[in-house]
Amino acid sequence: MSIRKKSGFKLRRYTRRPPILYETTPGHHLLSVGIVIALLVVITVLVLHFVNPRNSFDINRISFGDILTATANTFFRMFLAYLLSLAISVPLALLIASTPLTQRILLPVADILQSVPVLAFFPVVVVFFTAYHAFELAAVFVIFISMIWNIVFPVIGGLQTIPDDVKSASIVFHVRGIRKFWYITLPAILPFVITGSLLCWAQGWTVVIVAEVLHTYIPHGTASQDLLGLGSLLVDSNAEGHTSTFVATLVVMILLVTLMNFLVWQPLLHFAQRFRFD
Amino acid sequence: MEPPIVFTNVNKSYETPPVYVVHDFSLSINRGEFFCLVGQSGCGKSTVLKMIAGIENPTSGTLVRPNHVGMVFQSYALLPWLTVEDNISFAARMQRFEENRVQEVTERYLRMVHLEAFAKKHPRELSGGQRQRVGIARALAVESDVLLLDEPFSALDPVNCDELHADLLEIWGITKKTIVMISHHFEEAVVLADRVGIMKDGKLGEIIPITLPRPRKEEQASFMLEVKKIRRCLSAS
After folding, report:
1. Could you give the ipTM of this predicted complex?
2. Do the Cβ atoms of B194 and B210 come closer than 8 Å?
3. Which residues of chain B have pLDDT under 50?
């Protein structure tokens, strides 16, 4: 660990995670603390929300604040579903691609599962989760099912783009096990995880509109069982003829999708270029 | 001194019933020697190199090989997300060297392949010749006694090839490593090697010692005689 001086700050060069060296300033540390606190707040709000959901809303009296709450709800549902699909799809893709045998057995299974329309699962999922009053989980689960295959298949494809010579080099240089995953496999699949994630969210935005309108899938269900979110606002305001609410919700949704494209996906896609084998 | 690499009646097959890629292969490579294996595509020379590297195991026979080797690949096999110096230090770190030694080794071999000015560049910003220099430095950073080269110059233009031949001989002179290279260019084998082994259909044919003084030039009559000798042996075997 060496210490250098630049722009008045003492910089530390960390070398514990070998090939990627990074330098930090006091500003970086403050930012890190800020991010951790923000994450903790978000997680706490989420947990409280899921324990005691406040989804009841009157479509005839929707304020701008309600639309903002709906936006946050929809975003969190999609974010949770995305995290879940990411946590499951990457290990699943690694397992499928791990040996020729697992590929022969699991790839056709995954192929069949991904071709079953996600909404076909929905009535069963809703009946199951509503039996336990887990309305939020029903929505998250359906969004998760719609997302997962969008990462699995690109990652399997990505693993096949690792050149044979790189695989041979990893054997020669004794890069095995977790070190091989961390230093070679993970960076190599990163571009495919990012493009898969982009597709996940695109799919998620489509499914969330249906996933939040639970009452249509619950026997003798009413609109009071719907989850407050952009999707349910769009459907319910359209059904009740509230054009202004419908338009406002649609604009917010388009704005959110556009912002995510500019602030998240474009920088990530650009960043991913450096991880591609030429 | 014991030879670091010894093949005794080694066979390698991939299928059942066996189709031999390498058949009854016996060879001893001396310490500090520059050995070159030549032959046509598909004759099994890459498999021999992979067995030395530990990438493949023999189906039968005995192979004595060092545990640690450095290897240079035809397609460079660099990690595109790492800079030149990180690619080199990566190989050293994977050998679990102390951090000081990693830095020292990286700087030494970066200097040896004349790429100090490109240390912070990524592989895609380099020419083919420069990328292969990084590949050589990375292989050296393992600090093993044996360096393996798998057709390292076949994708390069003649000018780059000549420069890299000269650099490789200089590195060999400094490091005194045992070098095993495979190539399908007879001239390249004569320029570089102490001995040239000729492979055909998975079998090792004649081994020709090259006794010409270095630096060897293609314009020399004796140089062309050695090339013709290899060509003749390959056609005869």
Report:
1. 0.91
2. yes
3. none
